[in-house]
Design brief:
3 helices; 15% helix; 29% strand
Length: 206
């Protein structure tokens, strides 16, 4: 597996994967400087696309995202999918995921102690950080990032490319538009239009 990114979130991905038998795990970073030839002193670090294709030419060309940021995640997933890599999910063994009417997209990062109830739809490339709670009948769009400890209550919806800050709460049946930023600790009590920022308790447009 190729993990795209070799900084903070990539370290969290290793914490999810380290107790599993993941063969040929390597990391990719073509931006950062002075980071050496390995990641965490253990895993190969690949610095350009040609080298990644060569490294995986006789291996399973699956990849996951080890970076945050909704637009960055979308851009990188499209880049590597175009090059023939297969976008795959990393899901922690400590996550609790409902059995009924749960629809999960491709390339998810579902981290430790996430709860996903029944009748939930989650799009492609979504990052649910540690301790996120997603309750019944929620819909989360593509490439949404939900920070640690955030709570999405029953019937709430979050549009594509939105970012939900740490420990934020979205109340039941609230609809959050696309490309929205919800600040850390905010409590969102009413619908939020696309391309906006919400902060505070109760949440207000910034």
């Amino acid at each position: 597996m190729l993990v795209i990114g070799a900084k903070g979130h990539a370290r969290d991905i290793v914490a999810v994967l380290e107790k599993r038998l993941v063969k040929e795990l390597a990391f990719y970073d073509d931006i950062s400087e002075n980071i050496g030839s390995s990641f965490l002193g253990e895993f190969p670090l690949i610095r350009d696309l040609a080298a990644a294709k060569e490294y995986f030419k006789d291996k399973s060309k699956v990849f996951t995202l080890g970076v945050g940021g909704p637009l960055v995640r979308k851009t990188l997933s499209e880049k590597f999918s175009t090059e023939g890599f297969i976008f795959t999910s990393v899901i922690s063994g400590t996550a609790i995921i409902g059995t009924y009417e749960v629809h999960l997209g491709q390339g998810l990062n579902i981290m430790h102690n996430v709860f996903i109830s029944n009748s939930v739809k989650i799009g492609n490339g979504v990052l649910l950080n540690a301790g996120v709670l997603v309750h019944h009948d929620c819909k989360i769009g593509d490439y949404v990032e939900v920070s640690p400890g955030a709570v999405v209550l029953g019937g709430a919806e979050i549009g594509d490319l939105s970012f939900i800050g740490a420990s934020a709460t979205i109340l039941p049946n609230v609809k959050v538009g696309q490309n929205v930023v919800i600040g850390a600790g905010a409590v969102v009590i009413k619908d939020v239009p696309s391309n906006s920022v919400v902060i505070g308790v109760p949440g207000r447009l910034k």
